[in-house]
């Protein structure tokens, strides 16, 4: 992942699209840019072409629009590229006033280039005094008696023209090159002229969600192809009193407006903030006026951040649950003053993100209260802007179900064409007038392609979303719910996800000389010295009132020592007891009466500097002083291997690795501590982290017990039984992860574990790869043991094996052994010591094998992986988080099987509704064509009765059925064009048509049959016997088919659990039986039904429908049972389309993989080369 990030930091990658000196013959003015939000985990490349408007072409298009009665404008709205080609001519991007953007998904956007007059010299103010590197650039000011800024806005982000790069670049590029020292220089504040100039270029600091007027929204909805079809239906059916379609459009538009307004109120954040100016004065301004480079004072009581900002002075306790899903407040510390390039992600411990809540700020302002920050990103470039952008402009979900739905609509369109041709022939032969013939022929199209079909497909998803919300699972991307139903692999973070968030201190293992002492179970029993001081002071815990807040591990560590936190209350932060240092926190030992016998600690410790924990660095450190400002100490805490690497080698006991492995293999969480004394003359205020964290003395190990959550084993067991592969991805030690995996049944006792060791090339060695069984240490396995494993059938899968790998080996594997990566991913279950970037890379690697990947985590370290996964679940108290599409308020992974069950239920419901709506249209299609054949038709109210009172109501309540209580081993199908679905539709349609034809033939064969008046066309000859017989059978067919397709076992609860649906069925069945069997009533007259007195005939019609129902149910059961076997026979030995299934079959047939205990070198290397 690091190599990808390094590439992205180059100019032009992810921020600009290059302008060409002239259009190329093939694709003039085209280029590529990244349009994704700043800091987005994925790169979205866009092809951009430049065009210049030609006035005479524009007038010609206006003329064409008038002549075509607006149809040309509708075409341009559907196909923006055609509109641009018709009105413009291609040109180089520097000369363009119109841009055509096309993303990787094929979506096209037309963007107008805007110009704005700016003040002379504003570019220098916008650039500031910091841009001395020659690669830094500024906004191009095209001077023609005026100074103009050329830019465009796409998805809320502003792109400005920069001639030196020959590109439109994100405006954020102007501050992307800032170093940490540059930001510290901005503490003095901007002048008002600087601020005004920057605001012209960067724009307002506001996340503006556009809310369109009712008229504009209605026009845009109507111009949508689907709504154009609805408008066509409305116009066609006005005579049939089908006003409810217009009402539907109004309701949909109203809901859209409401959602946009709600999102706008959520997104917009306007507060008053205190800004420091270059003159030294401080003024209160609206957050809308903030620009990158502004120096803002955060008050001591906190602030809801309106922008992204770097913390320069003081400390802040921040709630980032909206951003990361992490419910534990995070301590932010000042940005180091060095030449390192500033990156909000790399320095996230020094960055306050937009939308997060600063709970407390202290130690930064001259008054002693509050903190000082410098604005780095505004508007849609901020973290909150990223969240809103992901909601406003979601990436298309690449899901086969949605693709097949559109293909089937096209198929129905073809059927409608054939029906239209047939109806034209039949109506022409019946001497129908031309206006009536056109209307009735086009009517067939609206019948075969049901306008309500797309809306019906979302019903199951909406019900699932509502059920999830009741269970505490919130979703910001509803289309992902159906994707949950196809999950084949789920990754889990360990700490706080599979295991409890809090830990219990098991004991302390101190170092004495060159060996470890016995484990001390209670840290209060530690003698006075650096170890107890390290445990008490090496943390980021803060006080909010009398409440200690911070990482649960650190809270438990402090609690175990008995020491107490003391907040610095004076304004300057200086306490005379500790000299002239500004103090962040004071740690005082317990009173003498609370200390164990024989132990007396009286001297407090004051923390003067903090270097916070980073998942990348795997450590944190503090600088402390004693009373009088004497005895300055450095304390370091972190991953044992990392701490040991920063210590003097002679201070680390020789048995360090063995001791560590003993604890972690038993599932303990182990941290190491180290320290060193500093010279009293050292300037502690300016000391760097690199100077602090070197040449330390190893103190010992803090051993903590991390209990597995009781729900974890049950959930993992459910997933394994459902053939969903569980994987653990953690930053913890590999042996600890292995123990937790065994505790939660991710690894069963009889299953073998093989460790994967990969190392990069060194000065005198080449890259190597090795697979080792058992403890994964360097001990070799003899040949006899290897043969025993082979005899046990390890490679034949009679004894299943799992691979375990750590982050360093994973990086070496990706870089030097890419050909082995897919196989390791196929069998890998434990991924330990993984950095956040590696977690993301792992998710993407699994997706390349065609897995549908889920990810469940609870912290900031998992954000990238959560967003990269097909289904990301964040365990958090927040209702919405930028971290993932799903946020669960439960503190355990029980939400995972719930999500999968709801996804499967939603997917099956969508299938059922799709089949039902398709069959509904085909039933009505058959009815109309049959009646056209005998020169009649359904009445308007009969259409309305079927469409509104029956089908619409059934479609709405059909999706209410909840998910099954258990996960079935087979996943539901996702293809609408699969053999079972298509064969079911075809066979049902044939039966439905035969039933209606049978009813008509039986009617015409009766002795009392009276032919209709053929001189009256269409519905003008109602009531008649032909129409009444077809009405009776087709009405019952709508009901019986809803029962036939509503089955959902084993993914949904049985039908009777959907009480509302059953009640609707009973009511509708009762009404239809009443209309068929009973004598003429007011409703019969209203629907224009013929009164037939022959009860035997009426019962025969009901019997036809009952036989239709029985045969359809039998067919559906046979298709469900036999279709999979038929597919397997038809497929034969063809390999699966999914890469992971092909690879799994290959590994099952390869008894020699993995090659145990063999050193493997890259293909281009050899063992001889090493020697």
UniProtKB/TrEMBL annotation:
InterPro entries listed in its UniProt record: ATPase_P-typ_cation-transptr_N, ATPase_P-typ_cyto_dom_N, ATPase_P-typ_P_site, ATPase_P-typ_TM_dom_sf, ATPase_P-typ_transduc_dom_A_sf, ATPase_P-type_domA, HAD-like_sf, HAD_sf
Pfam families with a match to the protein in the record: Cation_ATPase, Cation_ATPase_N, E1-E2_ATPase, P5-ATPase
GO terms under cellular component: late endosome membrane
Stored Gene3D superfamilies: Calcium-transporting ATPase, cytoplasmic domain N, Calcium-transporting ATPase, cytoplasmic transduction domain A, Calcium-transporting ATPase, transmembrane domain, HAD superfamily/HAD-like
Limits of the Cation-transporting P-type ATPase N-terminal domain: 180-237
Intracellular or extracellular location(s): Membrane
Span of domain P5B-type ATPase N-terminal: 44-161
Membrane topology: Multi-pass membrane protein
Transmembrane segments: 56-78, 244-263, 408-428, 444-464, 913-932, 944-962, 974-1002, 1028-1046, 1058-1077, 1097-1119
GO molecular function: ATP binding; ATP hydrolysis activity; ATPase-coupled monoatomic cation transmembrane transporter activity; metal ion binding; P-type ion transporter activity; polyamine transmembrane transporter activity
Main location: membrane
Any Gene Ontology biological process: regulation of mitochondrion organization
Region feature Disordered, mapped onto this chain: 19-41
Keyword Nucleotide-binding appears in the UniProt entry: yes
Location of the P-type ATPase A domain: 273-390
Key words, A-Z: ATP-binding, Magnesium, Membrane, Metal-binding, Nucleotide-binding, Translocase, Transmembrane, Transmembrane helix
NCBIfam families xref list: ATPase_P-type, P-ATPase-V
PANTHER family: CATION-TRANSPORTING ATPASE-RELATED (PTHR45630), POLYAMINE-TRANSPORTING ATPASE 13A2 (PTHR45630:SF2)
Family, as annotated: Belongs to the cation transport ATPase (P-type) (TC 3.A.3) family. Type V subfamily.
The name this protein goes by in its record: Cation-transporting P-type ATPase N-terminal domain-containing protein
